[in-house]
User: What shape does this take?
Amino acid sequence: MSRIEKRKKQDIKKRNRRKKTTSFFSVFIILLLIVSIFGAYIGYKLSKVNDNSIDISDVKGNKENGNYNGENNDSSIKKDKFVNVLLMGVDIGTPGVTKSKKRTDTIILLNYNKIIDKVNLISIPRDTYIKINGKPNKINAVHVYGGVPALVETVEKLFDINIDYYAKIDYAGFRELINAIGGVDMKINRNMYYDDATQNLHIHFRKGTVVHLDGKKAEEFVRWRKNNDNTGLANGDIGRISNQQLFINKVVDKIKSPEIIFKLPSLLNIIPKYVETNMNIDEIIKYGTKLAKINMENIDMMTLKGESGYLNGISYYFYDQSKNKNIFKMIHDDDYVIIDKKSLKIRVLNATNKRGLAKNFSNFINKEGYTNTFLGNAKSSDVTKMIFYGVDENVAKVVEREFNIHNVEINARKKGNYDIVIILGRDHDYVNN
Assistant: This one.
């Protein structure tokens, strides 16, 4: 190849690089223009979103009933680590009665852990047993008797937390918001046939089909619990919450997709009209931006655990604190994460001459929920050690604390058949038990 041909080839490469660079900056400039234009628009639209909000500051941390004590709790410390938002979906009220008070059909605590940048969405069944004015009732009735402040106070007591913000929407707003994002596609896993003429509610979905849920169909999907022939969800409201969580996953995927930027004008017209919140514009943009950046694997959805039962002939969902230890740790301890303990494959090796040590330790961690364990022996060692392979660091911290083994090695990649290998040396406390 001659020098002239080489130069021509080099010139072509340079021009191509300049074209790519110019193209990149063109796209970048366009995006900046869109953001700057929408930034002003967002500010204008959302500035009115809390015009009708209710002040809940007098609810937090100063209850007359003594559940909260400013000297004993660490809410001021936790406030730097967590943000708690109570999400409420209210029903249509009593059909045919104008301005009737509305129950909360959906109650979700959004717990944002600022330390590990994680979101926990905890659904509270609407039939959860509580007392209102000393009498048995369901948590979905609290809003009827005392509005937003009463429900905030009830949930604060339930979780022993302070709620910073709330957001409330009714079904009309829900339908409009889903229409504004363009709806979502959902595979129907069971037949859903239910009609209620008094609420103008008609649900008709066939098992095995994929349905595009616009606002109206989305409302039908999240509200369904049983069919006209009384078949349906065996566990009632808990099953309905599972459907809601499936739907929320689809909505989050849609909102995090690039095409959502073209839906912003519609969304910003709807939000101030239908959403009631005590967040100001700065807080909405601040936390909205943070939440939008969080990966799906850092968003956990769960339901408050309990048992269904009857009291005086009325069905309730009885909350069981002993079954919710993980949820409480997760929303109070900034480095705690809920993990699927049964999925972790754990190799427990005895590196001492004490017979049965690996078996005893395996029994100990089995009681904590780590049941996928395998026993063996290792070369004699004075030092106990735990090795993680391809396990998230936040998960490793939880395991380290629960196993009380602090000589830890974390490998980013999976190696072999096990997620965790534990070598029990002569220094381990369990030797002396």
In short: Residues 116 and 155 are 24 Å apart (CA to CA).
